[in-house]
Write a structure and sequence with these properties.
Helices cover 28% and strands 26% of the residues. The protein is of the alpha/beta class and 214 residues long. The chain is globular.
Length: 214
């Protein structure tokens, strides 16, 4: 990504600290640290605190529509959890806002101004109390999107997965290999169709497969 313009990037922070009968004590320090960090990196900063669900939705949509920069970071800090199917953020008025809705605001369709530009979403929220470590989950495509297949070469994802692992597993860790697979998918198009892979790292450390080493 080209990251050389004077308007290098924009940061949006939403920090919900106070709730009905509850508070995330110490959370204000996160705002201070993020402001100091991104100011030094030359980013413009928009900060909000204790937003209702309605105001939070509006702030996110306004930021996505008005950003004309090289890249954007969005950091949401609040209580949260796991619903029946999706993660959610708890708003100041104790409503649930699905993480998926926030992600959707930065799709190419809803956010054309940032098409082709890096968009980083970060969520400082709880997601339940299950203990899961050393787990890496990879998906061939994003939720709600197709995974493509060639009748001669097989699926795009598995074809590239095998290529990258065969060529680079001797000196590259597994998570980096998955990033290389996604880079390969980004370069592949078929009748204007594109595919983007994804993965989730849940306490998964560096893992080298060391093929041929005993």
């Amino acid at each position: 990504y080209p990251m050389r313009s004077r308007h290098r990037g924009a940061l949006l922070t939403i920090n919900n600290v106070e709730f009905l009968g509850d508070a995330r004590n110490g959370a204000e320090v996160d705002d201070q640290n993020l402001t100091e960090l991104f100011t030094q990196m030359g980013f413009s900063i928009t900060s909000h605190k204790d937003l209702t669900k309605r105001d939070m939705c509006q702030a996110i949509q306004d930021f996505a529509n008005e950003s004309r920069v090289d890249c954007v970071f969005v950091v949401v800090m609040s209580h949260g959890g796991e619903g029946p199917t999706r993660s959610y953020v708890t708003t100041h008025d104790c409503q649930r806002l699905e993480v998926q809705w926030i992600e959707d605001q930065f799709t190419n369709r809803l956010c054309p101004a940032l098409r082709g530009k890096p968009k980083v979403l970060m969520f400082q929220i709880c997601r339940g109390d299950r203990e899961v470590t050393d787990l890496l989950i990879a998906f061939s495509t994003l939720p709600g999107h197709k995974a493509f297949r060639d009748i001669y070469k097989g699926t795009w994802y598995v074809e590239l997965l095998c290529q990258m692992f065969m060529q680079h597993a001797h000196d590259t860790d597994v998570e980096s290999l998955l990033k290389m697979v996604d880079d390969g998918l980004a370069k592949r198009m078929s009748d204007a169709n594109m595919q983007t892979a994804s993965y989730e790292n849940r306490g998964f450390k560096l893992c080298f497969l060391n093929p041929g080493l005993y």
